[in-house]
Amino acid sequence: MRRGYGQYCPLALAAELLCERWTVLVISRLIDGCTQFNEIHRGVPRISPSLLSRRLGQLERAGLVERSAAKKGRARKYALTPAGRELEPIIESIAIWGQHWSRDMRDDDLDPAFLLWSMHVRLDAARMPPRRTVLQLEFTGAPRDYRRFWLVSEGGVIDMCLKDPGHEVDITARSDLRLFIEAWRGIRDLRGEIRAGRIELVGPSVLRKQFPDWLQLSALAPFPRLRPGRERRLDCARREQLQ
Prior knowledge:
11 helices
């Protein structure tokens, strides 16, 4: 059976492409500046490589993505076409709507690898020490073999490491995974959680003091939760404390 809605409506025709599972997230990673296959995959860690390849192929055939020819020893690069770029404000609006109205997070939504990717594109390298700085993250509430991660800042570049990079750690942040994600999304107050000891920082006092300034938080953190539930109650309490 042919897939589609069987309607000439432009919305239906757009939905045939954009409502395929993972497609909007893949486009979002390209908007974020990911250009190589592995970069895109790190930003959508739960998609299989074969399905990611298929989605990129669909977007290329639809004229939303263009792929450069592979040069010797170099990976192919992907980029949005002008048609793909027109989706940027649309996807941003959907994300803001999600911050306002999507359901509260469930345990199986709490992907530490995606959190790490999100942090590495939002850390403010200009505020970090000019020398190599290693941030270690330790999360309870995550799978046993998936609780420790590293972010390395050097020369203005932030690298994410799922395995120990072998460098001396400058500062360690320890937290429950859900709590940290809630702070990252702006639902909790990051500085307040640090003061309360629910986000524990281990390292030199000067780095502990600087740590909150390194994190720019999610780009959606300024937008409040509007859907009734646990996350809205936390967000309202945070905003009341800040007033």
